[in-house]
Amino acid sequence: MDYQLNDDQRLLLRNIRDFARKELMPLGDELDESGRFPWESIKKMAAIGLTALLIPERYEGMDVDAISYCLILEEMGYANGPGSLVPGFSLASLPMILYGTEEQKSKYLPPMARGEKLTSFGLSEANAGSDNASMQSRAVRQGDVYVLNGSKCFNSFGSVAETYTVFAKTDPAAGHKGITAFILEKGTPGFSFGAHEKKMGLGWVPTTDLAFDDCRVPLENRLGEEGEGFKVAMSVLDPARLTVAAFHTGLSQRAFDLALEYAFQRVQFGRPIAQFQAIQFKFADMALGIEAGRQLTYSAARKKAAGQPYGREVSFAKLFTTENSNKVTYEALQIHGGYGYMKSYPMERLAREARLGTLGEGTSEIQRVIIADQIYREFKKRH
After folding, report:
1. How far apart (Å, rounded) are the C-alpha atoms in residues 357 and 324?
2. Which of 14, 66, 150, 295 is a plausible cystine mate for 305, CB 3.0–4.6 Å?
């Protein structure tokens, strides 16, 4: 496909690819084994703008266009390792970019852009995942402060971030219209973290519960208006799904390339296994799925770049690319045979990391609900 990249985008892609494959890719297995958090890589990523992709230039950000953003995220998915942090950098900054006051943006965005302070997004609760409107966290206004009580789960960068966008109900009777967003700073009395979750993949990325026990949040740290929290949260989801789609396109391509290289090196029955039709069919199907996912992803990105609604297109892309990354990593591991099951080969890790895609930023089931709902609404308009 000709993505009609301009000269700036081609140069950006070349530079990001060189950096990612030299500085980030080699660390994937080591981080998976050691569990350490790579602060030194964050400094390197910050130096070339990877911590500031969506932040406006006036706050020291890059404010890249949608196509460039997908090119970068695809390279981060291919590299894995510390590249897996970039979606978190981008998405956690969006609520402040979209809904922050000038004072909030000036205070919080420049340190994020420089990679000096990380931020986290706290929406999910133990009993409020896909159904965010059923959250139990509460915020009660008392003069110029809100008193926050409750908890959040599955928070990436939990305990290593400095600021947290969190959501609580200020009007429990109003359903999703009673949710309000807040900026919560580490060190606020009553704000604590749970233990680091032990995860199937990306165990080195701290993921914790957040607990709020009579946290006093100043009025100036409310994000948006009271009752706008659900709107704030939902505004992040389409960009998040585009992020995930591009990232998993890159992850799938990496698995494909590893399997292809192995298939030409591995000799059985007197010839490379790449010459056997059973293996060739696997590569044909994998290549088809990767390119189809890439087409869907960049189709959504082009609509976003043009300022057009892209909700259905990005649900298509997110659903297809994440489910396909599970298929591709499965087949790529299968091609590796027993070696694919061994931690000494990166395929084992990639297969585990691919699994997250169908769960985060709206499960595959939720994407199907969104797509079906749009199909039905369009049908009713025609009839």
Report:
1. 10
2. 66
DSSP 8-state code for residue 141: E
- Domains within the chain, CATH numbers bracketed: 7-113 (1.10.540.10), 119-227 (2.40.110.10), 231-382 (1.20.140.10)
Q: Which of 261, 361, 365, 378 is catalytic?
A: 361
Helix (H) or strand (E) holding 45, with range, is helix 39-47
- Number of residues that make up the chain: 383
CA max distance for the chain? 80
At position 289, the amino acid (one-letter code) is G
What's the DSSP call for residue 217? E
pLDDT digit string (tens) for the chain, length 383 residues: 456 788 889 999 999 999 999 999 999 999 999 999 999 999 999 999 999 999 999 999 999 999 999 999 999 999 999 999 999 998 889 999 999 999 999 999 999 999 999 999 999 998 887 888 889 999 999 999 999 999 999 999 999 999 999 999 999 988 889 999 999 999 999 999 999 999 999 999 999 999 999 999 999 999 999 999 999 999 998 999 999 999 999 999 999 999 999 999 999 999 999 999 999 999 999 999 999 999 999 999 999 999 999 999 999 999 999 999 999 999 999 999 999 999 999 999 999 999 999 998 889 999 999 999 999 999 999 98
Task: Report the predicted TM-score, pTM, of the whole model to 2 decimal places.
Answer: 0.95
* Separation between Cα atoms, residue 304 and residue 301, nearest integer Å: 5
Residue 338 neighbours by CB under 8 Å, 6+ apart: none
